[in-house]
Amino acid sequence: MRVSRTRRLLAVAVAACIATTLPAAAIDLQGHRGARGLAPENTLAAFRTAIDIGVSTLETDLALTVDDVLVLSHEPALNRALTRTGDGRWLPADGPPIRTLTWAELRAYDVGRIDPSHDYAKTWTRQAAVDGERMPSLAQLFALARDARSPGGRPTRFNIETKLTPASAVPTASAEEFARAVARAVVAAGMTERVTVQSFDWRSLRALKRIAPEIRTVCLTIEAKAMDTVGADASGASPWHDGLKQSRYGGSLPRTVQAAGCAAWSPFWRNLTPDLVAEAHGLGLAVVPWTVNEPADMERMLDLGVDGLITDYPDRARGVLAQRGVPLD
Predict the structure, then answer these.
(1) How many CB atoms lie within 10 A of CB 51?
(2) 3-state class (DSSP) for residue 30
């Protein structure tokens, strides 16, 4: 245990020394749900905020309506903490699954603020309400940011997440339905080069690679008490990994990510170690941890040599990056 800990500390120290002697590599700064810490999540207001702050990539979540419109929602059903009816009343409980509603029906709800009586509001005290915001479609997000550019001069990119789970009580689109809808939307918008598609449930990612192999995918993972998408079940594979068994890849999570066809690995930031970053880079994978909100933790991730940061507070990240002289990708 001591040897392992010593190796990790040495690796961090070496990385920090290298960082002070080499030009800083550009970082992909991703605004999580737009800029959740500052504006109502997954609304056009949040994405405008992120663009104004200056990000490389807009990160968001996808659900599919009953009439097959891709909309931006982290939850598979209407979230009572975020949703009001047209006359201003908060939902008394989580609403119907988005997969059972039409796009027109969704547009009747206001998602421009958090219910102040809900526990969720205690976390996002800096979030400025924007009453009248509606749940946007993916097409609307593409239109909003079509001409946007990062501070580095590149067109703003999009990292879109298919929200489904291997077993859920809330009906959602299937992995295949998600993959086909995403492929259609991305190609129709001419955004193939500007989009990555991520998911914890790798079924949708592997389906997308079969349908549209030119669209890059990102494998999300987390290993924590509240949620673990890596641990194997009785079959020897994680139920989130579409049958891929980590044991077949030497017990290596980065190698399993590579086998899934992903161009990047996006782990929960607390799960990252210097050895894992080095291994992933050796396999040609980009490493972009989520969701890193405190400046000290952003510093730690940069010291590990990550390729990007996903954050609810892109303003904080811009400050950290500027102080270190790190350009945006």
Answers:
(1) 20
(2) strand
Distance CA 38, CA 187 (A): 31
Residue 79 resides in a domain: yes
Using the structure block, give the residue that is written with the tokens 């066809």.
261
Q: How far apart are CA 214 and CA 205, in angstroms?
A: 12
What proportion of the chain, given as a percentage, has pLDDT over 90? 91
Please report, for the domain that includes residue 143, its CATH number: 3.20.20.190
CA atoms within 13 A on the CB side of 298: 26
Q: Which two tokens stand for residue 63?
A: 């659900």
Burial class of residue 66 in the structure, from the number of CB atoms within 10 Å of its CB (0-12 exposed, 13-18 middle, 19+ buried)? middle
Q: Is 64:98 a contact under the CB 8 Å cutoff?
A: yes
Per the structure, the count of domains in the chain is: 1
- Residue range 45-85, pLDDT digits in tens: 999 999 999 999 999 999 999 999 999 999 999 999 999 99
